[in-house]
């Protein structure tokens, strides 16, 4: 990897930090500026008075400030012209924008100075970029920087514009925080709980008021201080009316925004983050969390958005179901009555902040991106880092194809496998399928940087490989050349002169050539992946059906090189029930699948049913059966009091029934839709549950889509949720009246196991794999018998005693550990005990 450029040789940096409000995005710039100024000259465009005031306090000869009057209607055009002039004068190596108004300025400037987006980093800090579809395509060569993966995991937001689905590079860089030399002293016995939040729709002030009313009775004398901007008078009046109605003047105190909350944090018992998923939420990071940790204070938060990922429940904070007022009050009371617990959580949080969010570590990531290098996060290395000997070639194709979507099904198993592999003393090399190159290949820098965006096992492996590899720098577009700069300068400084030149003095052929230079696609640097050169003794481990993409000859060639092959087998549905499967001709597919399985050195089936099918299919082909073992996959993490929140749009006053599955023909959604159409007339309105279909649209689902979109009578009783974060899915499992799984054919049925692991009963189809996944504890029905399903669903909707009996059985269910299948795979590969 290229060495960092010495500070003395770094070109200038331009930052556009223009917004009417003030929040975490501006605080991040202010935190990064002092160490940035030690490296290079920085000029900042800003508009908010408080932001400008704080920037002016950073008095440094290398800092230049440009005030933008955002109250003017054409402020973006004025600022864009000034920005281009500074680019032409300074020739900066990078340009950073951190708000939606700043992106508007960049988009205009790029029109006038094409190629400017090639050196731009666009930081997205919230879910309020409503005109992203108009702006982001104007800066396709910019690097999008987000503080947490949750920003890109949200469906229909930014992921469509970044790799692997769009042209932009995307990097996860957390917000920075300055860590005091020593943690704050132990707070006073009557120390308040602190809530740092601007008063707007998603910060959860109403929930805070309701929790304070509960705490007023339970914990007399307990105080909560809420400090922040109150820019919307109507919301402030509504909040004060709520407070007066429950008479909590002595429990909850509203205070103005504090520019530096350090003093309040040092005096607090803990910090509360009550942000919700509605009205522009949830949080995409929350600086309040890391500022609390920096002072050694724990955090209590609703489990939605980034806080659900940042906070480790019972380790450095407490997570509460989103919007659960009783849960919030209970968590506050717990820390109020147990200072030792608060102290332990706060110490752990401070250690976490120092390791992952301290300004020097975060600055190193920013510097790498601004200098045109890969963003190595320096995560804890995997146990096998630096070891010699045979390599475990871990196939991560599914995770790369899944992109920024939350992992489900096989992609979740792939993640769990990487988590376990990272703990083993074995040399690991990440690979992916590459049919165009005849088999497998190593990962490029872009792919490794993408995987390193999460601090899980796969992220640790990718980060270590990225740090150690001799990869070329990321592709960067050619910056605007002298002709482009000259023409752009003429366009901006004197439009009349430009018209005179282009219309009278210069031949039109030359004008077309110059304009072509302005709009031409820039040259990109090559970025080949390191060569794939497996050696004898290496082990290829795949959990994602490689026969879907690769012919058996690929594995024949690998085995000829001495590479051993270990595969997870999820199902043999194309052989068992070809009528319910998509893709190429099922006869050719079966030949490729069985030909690959027969060559494996070891197989691990996810169920006894799948193992029996493998035995039957290979025997039918006259092939010898490789060593075969069975290990169930792990699903959602369910251990401990893990919290979550509902997906937006789910009615809060009605029960619901959940079906978690890809929406495709073999999953039998049409049976449920026909059944719910009948239930409208058969059940009392208060007992009719909403049918929640949680899953992405798949193949052969036209009838389901038509029934959902066209049946307006059924529409109030059906919700399709195409993508969910893990904490939302946990909430749905835990709060569903019951779940259903009427699939025609399965290899295991992971959602069945997940539902039971969280104590919720499930109706399953009478398929051997699903009966096995439910340990025989739940009712099993013929997937084609609508009357039987109608009777079973009606009974569970009306008979609370019967439902309680099934819940008691669900509690007895023994879920498979997340590492059960990975351990079996590594044991089969002879690299783990």
UniProtKB/TrEMBL annotation:
Signal peptide: none annotated. Gene3D superfamilies: Glycogen Phosphorylase B. It comes from the Bacteria. CDD domains: GT4_PimA-like (cd03801). InterPro entries: Glyco_trans_1. It holds the Pfam family Glycos_transf_1. Residues 187-352, 649-772 form the Glycosyl transferase family domain. This is Glycosyltransferase involved in cell wall biosynthesis. It comes from Ancylobacter polymorphus.
